[in-house]
Structures are given as structure tokens and as C-alpha cells.
């Protein structure tokens, strides 16, 4: 473990270095609109043979791959990829339809996955695309996330358009990111937009890498990218129905049971039809029906939304769900069982010493964040800090505090660079609170 004093000094030295660099920052260049790919919009590869040729095309190039995927969030239940955009130096850009080729996706896309395994992937906001790419057999052997790199560099705006303008002097036009990419055929202007998403991604990777090198954060970024690449995800929340918008207004167990049954019924329909749940029935309608608890078609269709033709045809489905809720012998409690700390707002009354620890830790981390120009949530997960402060028990020997914290963070998968910076801060915070109490 790094010596706390040395780690603190390193943070201070980095802060001085960053302050000097900030003072010398040139003004952002005037942006040049980027309206079309330099080589034109490539033909969409749809058939198995076309996808195989796209793989050969990519193999003819060299170096990292710029990778992006378009989904149909808000339109479809699934999170699958409906379009793949890949660019490589010496090869150019390919656009691949991963759903319309009439074959098993894993088999049809295997040649592309094989080529992609030969070098680094460059993505922007990789955590959004990696899951849908993994579904079709594509997993990176090395990763660079330009959005995460922007966060580590201390940029306040890290969306692709903002970073491209800041670092490359180019203006990406607003496009069709929120469109229904599951529709076919895909309009030409959509394909143009999609190709532009990877057009300058490799250039952006080199530009932000240079910034991180100047700031002394290259190794930090490498650790974060590898963690993201190998991250297996968190367990799915058991009671997902509790995320229904407006549920905070519901406290009665019987009404909560109605929300649960309506949500579960909607989820089953949405999954089967691959339609976004909100397009089957809005959350507000679920809350209204659960609260009113109608027992006839007339009463149900008198409620907002349910009076429409589509909902009238499904009235018996929603009434059956409400009937099941009324007859349940296991109504849910008003709060979901949790194996972690309660909301921090409740700490002052339930465990004031933990609240004091959390306040001191947050203050120390906020100061550290300013000194190294990295958002506090990227320095260390707020959830890890809450768990540490809630469960903390001071060791018998005060000098072992930093060692205990170090081990706690290691078990929580906190990366080495994060531990080097945060262990001294957390040690000081928790030690100070102990001395005051």
C-alpha cells in the first residue's frame, strides 16, 4: 500500500501541475461542421455474404477499431443492437445490420467478431454498448473509452459532440440517436448520422490520450478501461416494479400489490412483443389504476388512458391483474428489503456517528476532486463510501486505520490508483470523527 503521506503529496503535486496546464489552455477552436463521412456513406451490410466481406474489409486495415452500436431504447423491450458501425485506419467504415440477415446472429457475425478480437476497441460511453455487443458474440480484448477519458481529464461536458468540438474543432450535427433503429429500411440520413459517430472517434482517442498523458493520468485511465472491459455487471434488482414512476405516493400494501401485478403483467406483454413497457401502458396509468382499484370495465375505462380503443380491448387483462392483487396473501411492504445501508438522509437519526463519518468523507473527497480535477464519483464509488462509513468500526490500534480501509476498498474492487488517492483522505476523515466523538 502506498504511504498515505506520499499519496497525499502526489495528489498535491498533480494539482499544481494541472493548475499550470489550465492557465496555459488555448481557446477552443471555431468548430467546422462535419456533415458527411469523408469517403461517403458506406453500403449497409445485411446478408451473411455481405457481412463476411465487411469483416475482410476491416481485416485489411490496421490499428484500433472505432466501434458504436445503435439500439431502439424507448421503442423496444430488448436492449439489442440494431446497427453496428465500425471504422479502422486503412479500411474505412462499415455499417452492419445485425438483425435482418435471416441467420443465427452469432454465426453470421462471427467473422466480424474474429477480426475485432485482434486489436483495441475505441468506444464513447462503452458501458452503454458493451452489453448489446456481447449478446452477439463481440467482446473487446482491449478497450479505450473516450467519454470516461474525458471525465478523468476533468471535462465538464463529455458527450461525443462536445469533446469532438473541444479537441478536434469539428461540429457533429444533432441527429437520430433517439430514433427507432429497429425500423426497416433505415433512411439514408440515419445511416449518414451513424457513420459520422465513428468517423473521428480514432482521432478523438489520440487527442484525449495526449491530454491524459500531459496530466499524468494515463495509468489511471488504463486501469479504468480494463475494469470496464472485464466488469460483469451488478445483480438485477429483485423488485424492479418498485421503480414505477410515482410509486413514492403509494404506501398501502394492497395498493402496492396492485402496482406489482399491473407492472408484472405489462412486463410480460412487453417482453413477449418486444415493445418498450411504457408503450404498452404508461407508469402513470398503473399508479392511477392501482389507487382507484376498479372492478368493472366501466370503472376502468373511465380512468385516464384506459378509455382509449387499444386499452379497452385489453381491459380484461388489467382487471385480472387487479383481481389477483386483491386476493393476494402476500402483499408487499412499503419499502424494499435491503442488504445495504439505508438512505443517507436517515443516518442522522438512526446512526449519527455514521452520518458524521460520511459528512467528513464527502468533504475530503470533494476537496480531492478539485485538486486532481476528477469527479468525486470517478475517484471512488459513492456506494462504497456509504458502506464504509455505515459499517466502520475503528481498529484497536489507530495506526491500522489506513490498512483496514485499504483492505475494504480492495475487496470492493476499487482500483489501485483510486486507493492511492482516497485511502489517505478517508483515513483522515474517519480518524478525525473518532477523535471528536
Automatic annotation (TrEMBL):
InterPro entries in the record: 3'-5'_exonuclease_dom, Exo_C, HRDC-like_sf, HRDC_dom, HRDC_dom_sf, RNase_D-like, RNaseH-like_sf, RNaseH_sf
Pfam (any one): HRDC
Domain HRDC intervals: 252-332
SMART domains named among the record's database cross-references: 35EXOc (SM00474), HRDC (SM00341)
Domain of life assignment: Bacteria
Residue ranges with Low complexity bias: 10-37
Region (Disordered): 1-39, 325-352
Name recorded for this polypeptide: Ribonuclease D
Amino acid at each position: 500500500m502506498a504511504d498515505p503521506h506520499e499519496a497525499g503529496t502526489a495528489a498535491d503535486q498533480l494539482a499544481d501541475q494541472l493548475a499550470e496546464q489550465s492557465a496555459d489552455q488555448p481557446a477552443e477552436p471555431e468548430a467546422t461542421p462535419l456533415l458527411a463521412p469523408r469517403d461517403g456513406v458506406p453500403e449497409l451490410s445485411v446478408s451473411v455474404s455481405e457481412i463476411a466481406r465487411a469483416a475482410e474489409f476491416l481485416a485489411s486495415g490496421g490499428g484500433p477499431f472505432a466501434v458504436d452500436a445503435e439500439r431502439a431504447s424507448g421503442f423496444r423491450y430488448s436492449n439489442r443492437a440494431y446497427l453496428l458501425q465500425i471504422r479502422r485506419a486503412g479500411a474505412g467504415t462499415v455499417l452492419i445490420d445485425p438483425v435482418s440477415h435471416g441467420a443465427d446472429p452469432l454465426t453470421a457475425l462471427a467473422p466480424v467478431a474474429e477480426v475485432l478480437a485482434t486489436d483495441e476497441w475505441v468506444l464513447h460511453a462503452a458501458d452503454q454498448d458493451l452489453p448489446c455487443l456481447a449478446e452477439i458474440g463481440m467482446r473487446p480484448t482491449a478497450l479505450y473509452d473516450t467519454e470516461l477519458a474525458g471525465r478523468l481529464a476533468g471535462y465538464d461536458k463529455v458527450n461525443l459532440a462536445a469533446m469532438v468540438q473541444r479537441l478536434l474543432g469539428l461540429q457533429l450535427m444533432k441527429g437520430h440517436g433517439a430514433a427507432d433503429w429497429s425500423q426497416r429500411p433505415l433512411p439514408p440520413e440515419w445511416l449518414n448520422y451513424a457513420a459520422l459517430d465513428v468517423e473521428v472517434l480514432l482521432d478523438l482517442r489520440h487527442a484525449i490520450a495526449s491530454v491524459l498523458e500531459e496530466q499524468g493520468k494515463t495509468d489511471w485511465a488504463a486501469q479504468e478501461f480494463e475494469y470496464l472491459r472485464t466488469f460483469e455487471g451488478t445483480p438485477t434488482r429483485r423488485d424492479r416494479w418498485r421503480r414505477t414512476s410515482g410509486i413514492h405516493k403509494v404506501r398501502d400494501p394492497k395498493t402496492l400489490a396492485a402496482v406489482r401485478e399491473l407492472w408484472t403483467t405489462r412486463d410480460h406483454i412487453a417482453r413477449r412483443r418486444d415493445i418498450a413497457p411504457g408503450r404498452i401502458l404508461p407508469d402513470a396509468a398503473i399508479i392511477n389504476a392501482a389507487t382507484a382499484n376498479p372492478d368493472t370495465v366501466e370503472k376502468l375505462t373511465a380512468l385516464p388512458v384506459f378509455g382509449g380503443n387499444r386499452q379497452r380491448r385489453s381491459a380484461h387483462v388489467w382487471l385480472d391483474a387487479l383481481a389477483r392483487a386483491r386476493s393476494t396473501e402476500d402483499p408487499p411492504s412499503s419499502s424494499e428489503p435491503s442488504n445495504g445501508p439505508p438512505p443517507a438522509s436517515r443516518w442522522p437519526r438512526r446512526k449519527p456517528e455514521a452520518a458524521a463519518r460520511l459528512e467528513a468523507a464527502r468533504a475530503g473527497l470533494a476537496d480531492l476532486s478539485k485538486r486532481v480535477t476528477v469527479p468525486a464519483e470517478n475517484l471512488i464509488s459513492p456506494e462504497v463510501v456509504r458502506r464504509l462509513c455505515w459499517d466502520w468500526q475503528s481498529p484497536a490500534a489507530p495506526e491500522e486505520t489506513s490498512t483496514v480501509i485499504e483492505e475494504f476498498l480492495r475487496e470492493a474492487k476499487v482500483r489501485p490508483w483510486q486507493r492511492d488517492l482516497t485511502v489517505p483522505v478517508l483515513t483522515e476523515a474517519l480518524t478525525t470523527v473518532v477523535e471528536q466523538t
